[in-house]
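ARCHIVE CARD
Drawer: 12
Card no.: 0347
Subject: one protein chain, sequence and derived structure
Cross-reference: see card 0346
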Amino acid sequence: MKITLYQPDIAQNLGAAMRLCVCFGVPLAIIEPCGFPLTVKALRRTAMDYAAQVDVIRHKTWAGFADSELNAGNRIVLLSTKAARPITNFKFKANDTLLFGRESAGVPDEIHGAVQERVFIPLNPDARSLNLVSSASIALFEALRQTGGLK
């Protein structure tokens, strides 16, 4: 299981995602470019004392990330408000990569078409969306629960 952020916009969300990954023992992948400088110093600052504990995998492009995941036999599952299937009706696999789009724009249409699965988190119809890391927390917990990955 892995969390992947597509071109994150907000450094504090990256830090919170790093903390989430440490707490559940999963790696974090980042598809660049980010909306902020992604330096070692910035990672330490945003993740506080969790930075040294998280396995961060950086990808310079979507194509490089996608090739890496497919070559490893991992299924890419996009969490998106545009998806048709609710997370509650989805069966996760232990080697899934959970992909989350930019806070400001999600992912481009071509990525929607390139991933193996697309799911959404059911919300109150009057609500637009959750915070990125709130969504990642819900999805990761459900995926780990289903696959026996909770410690």
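Annotation on reverse: The domain at 2-147 is CATH 3.40.1280.10 (Alpha/beta knot). The mean pLDDT is 92.
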